[in-house]
Structure formats: structure tokens, C-alpha cells
Amino acid sequence: MGTARHRSLCYPQKLPVEKILLKDLSSTGLESGRTFFQLDNVDSLCLPASSSAARSSIKSQSREAENDSHCSRLAKTTLVPTTTEHMSHQEVGPPSVASTFDSTQFRNNASKPSDTAANSLGDPINNFSLSLSKEVRRILTEARRPSTRKVYLAKWKRFSNWNTSKGHDASLLNIPLILEYLADMLKNGLSYSSIKIHASAISARYNTDPPVFSHPLLRQFLRGIKNIKPPRKAPVPAWDLNFVLEKLTLPPFEPAASVDLQFLSWKTAFLLAITSARRVSELQALMAIPPFIIFHRDRVSLRTNPTFMPKVVSRVSLNQAIHLPAFFPNPENKGERLLHTLDIHRQLRYYLDRTKASRKSEQLFVAYAPAVQGKAISKQTISKWIGHCIRFCYSFHGKTVPANVRPHSTRATATSTAFLRGVPTKDILEAATWSSVHTFSKHYNLPLYSRSRAGFATAVLQGILATPSFT
């Protein structure tokens, strides 16, 4: 408040109140008497005993105060603390993290999570439930894909069960408990990326502003986990693409006209995965009928089911055709005839012909097991086919099966091989339906060591030319 040079601190009717902190007159201040750096103790401050008297006095002086730079206005009631606790004259230290970002500000705005269904997960519109129609709520819920909602719900249930085992209520937001849970996940061997998904799922369950995920302690904690257990890329691919391609030219994968339907299916799925670099979900959505599959003289064109929704909805990924060129379509010698067995154009023709009689679905890939033969299969089944194909090529030929063979790795292997063989980045991004080169460079670019100029799918397959069988 400072020194009162042209005014009184008291109204005619006065009451003593608790001590407050005012400016130390010995410290540096402003000429007008406003407080600046240090605060000091005064014995008392007098205020009107009658609220009506105060209002009358304030009203009569308000106009004069507005134009007098030496007159301090009364603070609004919302700025004056109502506590009666005595404020001791102690040196104020730096604020703690808890005081600058208290989790109670989240709790006040948080809506209690419910476990009714996956699509209720992290509903950011709970506070508007009375004003939003059912249709509007449904559309807002679709902002997250069903697969994301399903994953988040599973993570939340795990967190909720952990809280129950510790005697806590997961519906009450508690930042320290969230950190303890994530620390427990790290102790159990989860990777940084997995723990981050858990944190995202937990954050999605609470209707807070700002989001729980933006809490400074949580962000600092995740940075700490990243430093303790940083994401690492394998120094070399888990499996050798050229080795697998070479074995696919031999029995039991050939001759395609007579091999077991199981091996024909595995090989078709694998070749389509590496030459297109598409996600398994996109492979599952491919169709076996025109105009979704068209065979040209030098290529085959494929399209997904029009109802299919890609992982990333964008102009690049939505309803984009997949064009795959023929590979050595007119072989002239033994080596070229072996290479021609890797032609996806040829492989798809054989696959459609062999599955035509039993086919019960227009989906490209159908089951080969006798009990369900010809029926549409899930993306998980296609993923298993690709993994089985890679592992079988090693085990069948007496080689040690690589650890951690993941079907999704065909995407990284294919794009990395094409990149190091000179395929322009633009073509790689288009083939893999990536909108940013950052996605490829950060998550998929593998350390491979050969280059040549060729089209994307052709470049992937031409790596086999360096193997002993074709030199």
C-alpha cells in the first residue's frame, strides 16, 4: 500500500484487523508510495465497522480517486483474502512445484471416469452432456479411432486395477499416484513408448483443462524415463530380406500352380507387404474383384474397399491406388525364371485362381484352413502369415530363426531398401502413405548398405540379384 501522503488509511468508523505486510520505508520504492520490493509489518489497519458506511464513503470518493494518481482504490473483494490466520513476517522463499501447479486444479474440473464402454473413454464432453444431442456426442467420440479407444480402455483398466490393489480410488485424480504407477511400469520392463501410451490413456480419462498429460511433473517424469531407457533402433534388421526372397523362389513355395495353399497364401501376403509397404490393415481391405484389382500387361493395380478408413485420414492415404510393376515378366534364362517367381503380378494371378472355387468373400485374402476355407480373414491373421513366412524360410533351411521378427517390420525393411537403392523420398512417402519424411527417418529407416536406381517395388526385389544363386 505504501506511504499515505494525501489520504488517510482509515474511515471515520474503524475496526482493528490482523496485521498485514506493507512496504518497508527504508527500501527502494516508487515516488507515489506503491509497494515495490520488500514488505514490512504494520500494527493494524482500520476499516469501517458498518458495510453501509463503507459503501457510502467509497461512493462519495470514487470520482475523485479515479483522477488522483496519489489515491489508492480499494481492492475488489475477490482480491482480499478472507482468512483470519495471522501472517507472520517471514522471508518468502521460491514457490515449490506443487504450489505452482497443484493437481487440485485438475480435480476441480475433472469428471469422474466411467467404464461403461470403449467409446466412452476419455470423453471430453461430459460437462456438456445435458446440452449435446446423442448424435453430436457420437460424432465427437469418433475423433478417436475404435482401435485407439480399445487400447486406451485396456490401459485404463490396468491402471484402475493397480489403484485398487494399493487401496486407492482411480476416479480421483492424483498426480503422484500416476507417477508411481508409471514408475511401476518401468520396473516391470515396459519401454518408453509403452509407458507414454499408458500416460496418454490415463490423461484421456480425465476431463481437465489443461490436460493431465501437460502436467510439468508428468512431462519431466517422461523425460526422465526416456533418459533412463531411451528408444533404440536395432543396429541391423532382425531378418535378412534377400535371404527370405531367395528362399521364396524354392520349394515349398514353388511351383505356385501346385504348392499347398498355405504356402501360396504366405508368400502372396509377404510379397504384397514388401512391394507395397502398406500396413496390414490396408492389405486386409484389398478386394479381389474389378475395379478394385486390375491386371495390366506390365503391372497390377489394387484398391481398398471404399468403406475402409485408413489409420491416418489424408488426401495421400484415402482411396489411393497401389500400382505394382511386373518383375521380369518375360524371363529368358534360368536366373530370370527364378526371379520371375517373385513377381507380385504373377503371384496374385495364381492366388486368385487357386482360391476361386472356395472363395466366399470379395476380400482379397481369404482363409485356407478347411473349416473356414474361403472366408474373409482378419488383419491379425494376415500379420501372422507374414511372420510365419519369414520364420519358416529360416527354420526350413536350417538357419537360426531371428528373434523379435515382427510382421510390421516389412514396412521398415521395404522402405529402407528402396531408399538406399536410390528411390526418391517423395516416391517412398507416397508408397507408404506417409505425409512427412520425419515419420520415415525416425521410425522406419534401417541401416542397409546398397544403392541403385529403380522403381520402388522393383528396387525392393532387385536385392536378390546379389545372392549367390543369381551371380
Summarize the SSE layout with pairings.
Blueprint: E1 15-16, E2 21-23, E3 39-41, E4 46-47, H1 51-67, H2 97-100, H3 104-109, H4 134-141, H5 146-165, H6 175-187, H7 192-205, H8 216-228, H9 241-248, H10 261-276, H11 280-284, E5 293-295, E6 299-302, E7 322-325, H12 334-340, H13 344-355, H14 379-396, H15 409-420, H16 425-431, H17 437-444, H18 456-461
Antiparallel strand pairs: 1-4, 2-3, 5-6, 6-7
Helix pairs in contact: 5-7, 6-7, 6-8, 7-8, 9-14, 10-13, 10-14, 10-15
Largest sheet: 3 strands, antiparallel
Number of strands: 7
**Average pLDDT score:** 75
In percent, how helical is the residue content? 40-55%
Strand numbers in spatial order across the main sheet: 5-6-7
Order of helices and strands: EEEEHHHHHHHHHHHEEEHHHHHHH
Distance between the termini: 91 Å
The low-pLDDT segments are 7-12, 22-111, 114-128, 440-454
Strand content: under 5%
Q: Assign the structural class, choosing from mainly alpha, mainly beta, alpha/beta, alpha+beta, or little secondary structure.
A: mainly alpha
Shape: globular
Number of helices: 18
- Rg of Cα set: 35 Å
